[in-house]
Structure formats: structure tokens, C-alpha cells
Amino acid sequence: MTEQQNNPEEQPTPQNGPQPAPPDDAHTEISPASPVVVEHERLDPANQALADALRISFMILKLVMIFVVGLFIAGGFYQVEQNQRAVELLFGRVQGVGREAIAEPGWHWVWPYVGEVILIPAPTALQTLDVDSFWYYMTEKEKVLGKVTRSEKTLQIVRDGYSLTSTRRADRTLLRGVSGDSGLDRGEEELSVTDYNLVHTKWRIEYYVTDPITFVRNLWDGRKQGWFIVDRLLRSVLSDAVINVSAHRDIDWILWQNTNQFTNDVEVLMTARLDALDIGLTAKLILTDKSIPHQVRAAFDEATAARSMKNAMLETANARASEIVNKAEAQEKIIIANANAYRKIIVNAAQADAAYIDEVLDKINSKTRERFPDNVPDCQARRKQAFNDLLNETVDQLYQEMLREVMAAADETIVLPVTTADPMEVRVHISRDPKIERQKAKNKEKR
User: Fold this and answer.
1) Do 184 and 276 have their domain in common?
2) Domain check: are 320 and 228 in the same one?
3) Residues 411, 436: contact at Cβ < 8 Å?
4) Which of 70, 202, 211, 335 stands 20 to 30 A from 436 (CA)?
5) DSSP result, 151-217
6) Is residue 389 domain-shared with residue 419, that is, in the same domain?
7) Using one digit for the tens of pLDDT, what is the confidence trace for 274-312?
8) Helix, strand or coil for residue 330?
9) Dist CA 290 CA 270 (whole Å)
10) How far is the C-alpha of 440 from the C-alpha of 149, rounded, in Å?
11) At residue 237, does pLDDT exceed 90?
């Protein structure tokens, strides 16, 4: 249809009567002088509006599909912080094996809706949990003040926390089934000390997620409320360890004698239990506070004061004993040194005397041989007699020399005559003057 036919209002009015009908032949050529112009066929207004609306709707639909696809792709991106690691799940299953299953810090992509990302702390990120379930009840005001202001005379069993001590003994069954040495029975003798007391303790658990895959599979689901499960599990494991160790120790051992060993024993039991559960956690334990029940603190303070006094007295006694022992050892060394020196002097003098006597005897033998050679009749008997005579003379000379030395060293000498036929005289050394004795003492000190 031509434009004139589509818009009848614009068609020219007929002039000079009715127009002739078009020829029947469709292939009749139009003369160049004809005013009719050939144009593209156009729709009516309703159809044209519908076509435009469909075209616009299709374009909007394409834009919406592109936006949805982009939103779908963008929804799969997630970021892992430096103190985090991530584990990707697809239809609930962990993707990857070993280190490949752990997403490092940075941007990553996972299938949206069908995939899931569980963010967990990095193995170097320290997690802490304070446990006061073994501490006595304190109000918020008392916690701020740091002390109990109530005047309760009895322990509230339901409200207050505590652990019960029992009999101290070397119990090798405490860690039955646990590998390693706990130190509970290290070098101890069999003991049997009945002790039923209450102990209040505060703890802090510091732990790391060392195996993210095991941690996700066996414990945590990645939701924030899942940390409540982790905390409850750690509290339960710690409670079992504290109760177990406390039941095999007395209060003195826990609070004063071996507090560090008590903490170590509880940590060993807790670690062994976590390893048995296989949840991918490594924990360290810190004893932040310890106390006896505040209702009996006065009695315990008196016992502590007595114990301190006892320890002070023991330290003083041990110091005095060490001083006496050290002095005795020093004196012992001096006496031994002097004895060894004196022994050496005596031995040297004896050896010198023996050598001198041997020399004298050799000279006597030489003289007797010279006086009575072998060709003299009865030489042996004569030699023997001559040997005895010379020996007696030599001994008398030695005696006289020794006597002269002794007399020369004497401060006062009294000679008493002997009335018997024995020609020997008796010489007695008597020091009657006190000054002489004092002078002798001074001479000995100088030596």
C-alpha cells in the first residue's frame, strides 16, 4: 500500500469527474509522469506499537539476563584475610586434598548457591578462652573490685565452682592409655596423705587451628554459633583434666609446693584428650589464678604464716649447718694438709736416718774387715765382736749428740746424781718460770 492509501485524508480530491479504474494487468508499467511513489510497507499503529514494545522488552530481558549472570558470577567471589584460611565445600564435600583444599589469603571464587566457604582462623592466629568454672561466684561489682565483699560463711555448692583434692600418692594409672610421661609420678615415693579440700582455680586456654580440614570435618560448621560448640568442648575437656589431677593431689602440693607441675599435668591430660578426639586443635594451658575458699581464708592465712615461719627457720638452720660443715671441711683440709706435710717430714727424716745408719753400718763392716781379714784365724768371730764394740760406740756417740741438742734447746736443766752403780745420769727439764712457757708458746706460733 502506498502512503496515500494509508492516509486517506491526504489523498487529492478528484477533479474533472471520476477517475478511471486501474487496468487488470498487474504488470502494467507506470509511466514516468505518474505521481505515485513506491515505499516500504508499513504496519498499522497498533501493530507498530506492539512491535516496539516487544523490541524494548527483549532488550530489557537481555540486560536483566546479563545482570543476573554477572551477579551470579560475582556472588562466587570471596576474600580471605591474612589471619584466616578457608575451606571450600561443593554439595557439602571438601574440595581438594591436603594443602590444596585450604584457601590462602586473597580473592577466590566458588560456585554460588551449590558451594560453601568456611572461614577459619589461620594456624598462626592465637585463640583464647578464659575458663572460670572452677572459681567461686562473684558479682559484677566484686569482679570490678577484684575481691569478695559478701559475708557468706558457707560455700554455695550449686553456684560456686571448685575442684576437690584427695589423697596424694604416686599413681601410675592416672594417665593410663596416654602416651608420654606426665611427670605425676616422676621420682616420687609411694605416699598416702589423706587430704579432702576445695581449690578454686582460673584458667586460660590458648589454642591454634593446626589442621583446618579436620577442624571443619569433625567440629566446626563455619557459623558464628559454632564457636559456642568449640568453647563448650574445650571447657569440658579442661574440666575433666582439672578434676582428674586434683583428685590425685593435696592442696599443699597444688597451691604452694608444685603449682607449675600441677598446671603441666592438667595440660598433658587435656592435650591427650584433644589428640584422641582428633579435631585439629593444639592447645596450651595457663593457670591465671588459684585460691583457697574465701570462707576459710583466715585459717589458711595462719597456716601459711606458720609454713613461712617453718621455711624461714629451716633456711636459717640449713644456712648454719652449711656454715658449720664448710668450716669443718676447711679445718679438715688444713689438718690433712698438715698431717701430710708432717708425714712427709717424718718419712724424709726416717729415710735420711736409715740411709745414715746404713752408711754407718757399711763403715763398721769395712773397718772390721780391714782389722780382721779373711786370712786371720777365727776371723768371723773376731769380726762379730769388733762389730758389736764399734756399734755400741757409735750408738753412744749418737746418744751424746742427741742429748747435747736437747740440752741446748732446754730453757732450764736440773741434773740429779744417781746413787746406784749405774753410771748414767738423770737429767730432768723443768720450766718453773711462767715467762719461759709464754716465750715457748710464742715461738711455736711463729713457726
Assistant:
1) yes
2) no
3) yes
4) 335
5) ---S--TTTS--EE---B---TTTTTT--S--STTTTPPP--B----EEEEEEEEEEEE--HHHHHH
6) no
7) 999 999 899 999 999 998 887 787 887 888 788 889 989
8) helix
9) 19
10) 80
11) yes
Q: Which amino acid is at 290?
A: K
> Is the model more confident about 360 or about 341?
341
Residue from 113, 86, 110, 114 nearest 100 by CA: 86
Of the candidates 273, 219, 281, the one whose C-alpha atom is nearest the C-alpha of residue 243 is 273
How far CA 32 is from CA of 29, 36, 38, 351, in Å, comes to: 9, 9, 12, 169
Report the alpha-carbon distance of residue 183 to residue 250 in Å, rounded.
16
CB atoms within 10 A of CB 431: 13
Q: Is the pLDDT of residue 418 over 60?
A: no
Dig out the grid coordinates for 203 from the structure: 584458667
Q: Distance of CA 69 to CAs 59, 250, 271, Å?
A: 15, 69, 49
Spatial CB neighbours of 144, under 8 Å, sequence gap ≥ 6 = none
**Residue 322 and residue 302: Cα distance in Å, rounded?**
30
Same domain, 205 and 321: no
Helix (H, G, I), strand (E, B) or coil at 402: helix
Q: Is residue 9 part of a domain?
A: no
Q: What is the pLDDT of residue 435?
A: 67
Number of structural domains the chain divides into: 4
> Looking at the domain assignment, is residue 299 inside a domain?
no
**Cβ distance 126 to 206 under 8 Å?**
yes
φ/ψ of residue 363, rounded to 5: -65, -40
Write out the three cell numbers for 173. 594409672
